[in-house]
Amino acid sequence: MSQIEKVNLISLPRIFDQRGNLSVVEGNNHIPFQIRRVYWIYDVPGGEVRGGHAYKKLNEVIIALSGSFDVVLHDGKECRVISLNRSYYGVFVPEMIWRSIENFSTNALCLILASDRYNEQDYIRDFNTFTDIQNNPE
Ligand code: TYD
């Protein structure tokens, strides 16, 4: 299986209620890892792009809690774009996927669940370095 095929749009549970709907995500249940960190991106000015890197080991799930944006994914060979605009979908992004988040709507709120704590050493921030690693495995 190619790395991009491991990217997965996860449909989270929805509990409908006249008082307002509820969704939930549990680590190692709805998503395939234990959640060790949660961060969110907000107040993104029009036209800005977040991300633009890959992780060597980190797995993430990206959720559009509010508003909309595009998750742009690349495994060194293939590209895939997933547009999110509902709070009950999550994009599972495994390690070694180049990803950026673009086309944020006004008031978009991007929630990211991560499999580990923040570690700058786990980042690959240069696209050519990333494609070299992907296309020339040991
Ligand atoms: P970065 O991951 O590059 O942001 P994005 O992928 O959204 O463009 O992080 C931006 C800055 O925030 C970086 O200098 C380090 C800091 N940061 C933390 O301190 N902890 C975190 O969990 C994250 C994700 C970032």
What would your notes on this structure say?
With 138 residues, the protein is mainly β. It has one domain (3-12, 29-117): Jelly Rolls (Sandwich), CATH 2.60.120. Helix content is 7%, strand content 41%. It has one helix at residues 127-135; strands at 8-11, 14-15, 22-23, 37-41, 50-55, 60-66, 69-74, 79-84, 89-93, 98-102, 109-114, 123-124. The protein has a five-stranded antiparallel beta sheet, with no helix packed on it. A five-stranded antiparallel beta sheet has the order 8-7-10-5-12. It starts with 7 loop residues before the first strand and ends with a helix. The model has no long low-confidence stretch (mean pLDDT 97). Thymidine-5'-diphosphate binds next to β4 and β5.
Furnish the topology, listing elements before pairings.
Layout: E1 8-11, E2 14-15, E3 22-23, E4 37-41, E5 50-55, E6 60-66, E7 69-74, E8 79-84, E9 89-93, E10 98-102, E11 109-114, E12 123-124, H1 127-135
Antiparallel strand pairs: 1-9, 2-3, 4-11, 5-10, 5-12, 6-9, 6-11, 7-8, 7-10
The structure holds thymidine-5'-diphosphate.
Residues 37, 39, 41, 50-51, 53, 118 line the site of thymidine-5'-diphosphate.
